[in-house]
Design brief:
By secondary structure, the chain is mainly alpha-helical. The chain has helices spanning 30-49, 54-74, 94-108, 124-147, 154-174; strands at residues 16-18, 24-26, 118-119, 182-183. Its main location: cytoplasm.
Length: 190
Amino acid sequence: MVVLNKIYTRTGDKGTTALGNGDRVAKFDARVNAYGTSDELNATVGMARLYAADEMDAQLSAIQNDLFDLGADLCRPEMDKDAESEYPPLRMVESQVTRLEAEIDAMNATLEPLRSFILPGGSSLSAHLHLCRTVARRAERLSVELSRSEDVNPQVIMYLNRLSDWFFVAARIANDAGKADVLWVPGANR
């Protein structure tokens, strides 16, 4: 259980922060950028939930919880030492990815195939879900970049990749099952 009695600690006043294993790194460290962006993504999901109802709200709630799991995973480097750890770190697992895939398939089955690229927008929920999609892509890019130099759980990258797809399909659902999608018209303003 997490207990936060005091919010400010002054330990980051010189530009460093602690990872989940206690190591101190610069606040602009690649690992901090990756999990910080997953936190930003979580905040954008919270904004989208203001417009969501029922099943989609429940799915977004599960995604928010997953994103905290993902941040916890990213903040604990050295995956090879997990078994030795006194407090085993929380790691993303395959079932979190496959749940997203099942939800994508169920939503996509109700949509007509796309015949054009679509522009972010339409309903308020759709616009917010498109913002979530773009932040998810950035979190994915930063996690992939981090994985080129440090250990990153492959499930983190798979989850973020599926999640951006989830947001895309959900944004179409939020636009009256795609009927209110805003279509791109190539060269429309030439």
